[in-house]
Amino acid sequence: MRLATVRDRDAEKACVPTSLGLVPLEGINKQFNRSWPHDMLTLIQSGKLEELNEWYSSGGQEALGTLKDQAIPRHLVKFAPLYRRPRKIWGIGLNYQEHAADLSEKAPTTEPASFMKPDTTIIGYGDCVEIPLQSKSTTAEGELGIIIGRKCKDVERKDWLSVVAGFTTVIDMTAEDILRKNPRYLTMSKSFDTFFSFGPVLVTPDEIQDVMRLNVATVANGRVHARNAVANMTFPPDFLVSFHSRIMTMLPGDIIASGTPGAVPISEGDTVECWIDGFEPLVNPVKDLKNARNIT
C-alpha cells in the first residue's frame, strides 16, 4: 500500500491515497472501528503498519471507495514530510560509480561512505530548499529512501526486507564548496536547515516487484540531470540495511538515503525533483538566503 502525510490546519495527518483523493487514517478508524495511529512515525513505531497493510490488501482498499466524504481531493492536498523526528538519518556518499567519476572522487569499494544528518534538515514536498548564507555552491541529489520498520540489530542481508517499512523519494542537499574545503566538513556541509526532503509517499515493499530494477533520477527544472538503476549501486539496499544494523541498533522510522546517481547545482528560482519508477515525484523549489539578505 501507499501512505502519505498531509497538512490539515495545524496538524499533519497520515492518509491513504485513493482514486477519490487522500483519506485520513482518523476517518478510516471512525468508519471501520479501528485504532491505527494518525501520525506516520507513531504508526511505524507501533508496529501497526503491517496490520494496516494486511487490512488494506484483504478488502480495505475496496472499502475505502465508500469514504468519498472523507477524502481530500488531490488538488487541495498540501503534503508534509512523511514525519519529522526520526531517530537517525543515514546518508550514503558516492554509491554509484558514475557519480563518483563526476566528482573526480574514488568510490568506496569495501565499505559505504556513510554520514548522518540531523532531523532539523527535514522538509517535505513543495517546501523551499534554502541555499545558506555560508555557501555559494549547493547541490541537490535525488535518492531512494529506505525506511526501517522495526527495531533490529545484526540483520542478515537475506532478511533485510523483513525490517523495512517501506521506500520513498529523497532529495539530499550538500554545500559542495564547504565540503571541498576539507572532507572533515562533511557533517557541516550536509546539515543546514532544509537539506533533507522526503516523501510525499511511503511505498510498502509488497508494492515493488524488484527494488534493484528501480530507476532513480535527479531532475532540475524539468530536465533529467542524472538517472541510474538501483542495481548499479556499489552497495545495494540489502547491504546497506545489514551493514548499518551491525554498527548500531536500527529503530522504526530510521531512514537510509541510499545514494544519488548524480548531484545537480541549484540556485535561486530552480525546481529540483526526485523521480523513481512508480513513485509520486518529490518536488521542491529553491531559494537563496543570500538574495533575501541582499548579500553578494
Can you offer a commentary on this structure?
This protein is α+β, with helices and mostly antiparallel strands and 296 residues long. It folds into two domains: 75 residues, no CATH class; 204 residues, Fumarylacetoacetate hydrolase, domain 2 (Alpha-Beta Complex). It contains eight helices and 17 strands. It starts with a strand and ends with a helix.
Count of helical segments? Answer: 8
Runs with pLDDT <50, length 5+? Answer: none
Beta-strand fraction estimate: 25-35%
Look at the helices and sheets and give the structural class. Answer: alpha+beta
**Tally of strands:** 17
What separation lies between the terminal Cα atoms?
Answer: 47 Å
Domain count: 2
CATH topology of the largest domain: Fumarylacetoacetate hydrolase, domain 2
Biggest beta-sheet profile: 8 strands, mixed
Multimerization state = single chain
CATH-derived architecture of the largest domain: Alpha-Beta Complex
Helix content bin = 10-25%
User: Considering the protein shown, what is the CATH homologous superfamily of the largest domain?
Assistant: Fumarylacetoacetase-like, C-terminal domain
What top-tier CATH class of the largest domain fits best? Alpha Beta
**Global geometry:** globular
Average predicted confidence as pLDDT: 94
Radius of gyration over C-alpha positions, nearest whole angstrom: 19 Å
SSE topology string: EEEHHHEHEEEEEHHEEEEHEEEEH
